[in-house]
Amino acid sequence: MSRLIIMSNRVSAPKARSGGASQGGLAVALGAALAESGGVWFGWSGEVTDKFTGRMNISREAGITTATVDLEPQDIDEYYNGYANRTLWPLFHYRVDLAEFDRNFGAGYERVNQRLASTALPLIEPDDLIWVQDYHLLPLGDQLRQMGVVNRIGFFLHTPWPPHRLMTALPYHRRLVESMLAYDLIGFQTEDWLESFHHYVECEMDGTVDADGIVTVSDRVVLTGAFPIGIDAAEFDDLITRADAIEAQRTIRDSANGRKVIIGVDRLDYTKGLIHRFEGYGHFLEEHPDWQHRAFLLQIAPPSRGEVHTYEMIRSELDGLSGRINGQFAHVDWVPIRYVNQSYPRAGLAGLYRSSDVALITPLIDGMNLVAKEYVAAQDPDDPGVLILSKFAGAALQMTEALLVNPYSKDAISDALATALAMPLDERQRRWRALMAGVSNDNVHRWREDFLAALAGKESPRTMIVKHPLIGKHSLD
What we know:
Elements: E1 4-10, H1 25-37, E2 40-48, E3 56-61, E4 64-71, H2 73-92, H3 103-120, E5 129-133, H4 140-146, E6 153-156, H5 164-167, H6 173-180, E7 185-188, H7 191-204, E8 208-209, E9 214-217, E10 220-226, H8 235-239, H9 243-256, E11 260-265, H10 274-287, E12 295-300, H11 309-329, E13 337-340, H12 346-354, E14 358-361, H13 370-377, E15 386-390, E16 403-405, H14 410-422, H15 425-441, H16 444-455
Parallel strand pairs: 1-2, 1-5, 2-4, 5-6, 6-7, 7-10, 11-12, 11-14, 12-13, 14-15, 15-16
Antiparallel strand pairs: 3-4, 8-9, 9-10
């Protein structure tokens, strides 16, 4: 069996069965693959060094080998805070109005990808499969090709891929996409994002796409496909029995005092639709005064990317909006919004999911959204809660038994809340059973197995790249 080399911006190898926040489903799945193959997980350490040396910090824990490297302050400013999070992230989430196009960001992005490639090069053995993760490392495969790597390399994008016209707003967009054609396999979360990529290739690069998802541009041939990511559904059977989960359930139920609990769990990010969600919830309280005092919204929104000014703005706006709603509707014995800016361990979150009657998950756009799937997995089959989900989340294509809403419409959010809170038990159970079947079947292990099978050439005889010319010689400025 070939070894697997995983490359990502940050390394999150799972620890031995802890309920901690680091034990995410993606880490579990990739960790399992590494444990089976004996490979390595490589990426940035998250640490800063005065001068980049390329020296790796190699460790082994819970059967997983990790290799990390420190970056310089300029690297972090230009590559991570800059091009990744102030240019690509807003663009890929359709917020070109928030995207910052700075030539220094582009230069730093390519420089760091080159540094990561050269640092990782000694780790790679001839038969290894290489799997690159997410928008931080789009050109990493091309950098490795230029260094002589001929291994099969796959790339998976965890975010949406923007429509063709939005993508062309990015300076040197064609050169960036050309660098992606060095991969043997490019995976997306949904057919929608896959089709957007295909449309770009056809319109901008005179490429062709066949029925099997094989993209041909000049003499380069790349397999593409949709691989919807899932969660480790079985993990929640264990999480919900842990002390953190039981304590969280007890705490929320005691404090609810018989009221219905509506929960939202999101990073503090403008893509998550939190402002629209609060406005929709406030509208619900106005339209349905009979639910005042009988329900409350628990919104958990840990800070995200505090170095980026846009995130400071959204936090300030949410603070003000939650204060206005609470000021308008609250009474001495009831607060309509409990707004919490901190993270919780996974077992604790499982308990909060379990004790909530409704999940309000309304991103404006999302590559997938695993919170929706986690909420379903944590429910009591005998008395499940109701999932309200944005129709613009990637998960909506799979989770059709949720109450799907337009997250921009406060009327739609209000109506969905009224429906969810009044939904009879038999309908809640029916919807949950259908949702849970999908969450169980389309889990994170299947995602990993399907992608790696395609990367290894087991799904198509035509996945090999014909030729890897040197491309991207200039900075992505």
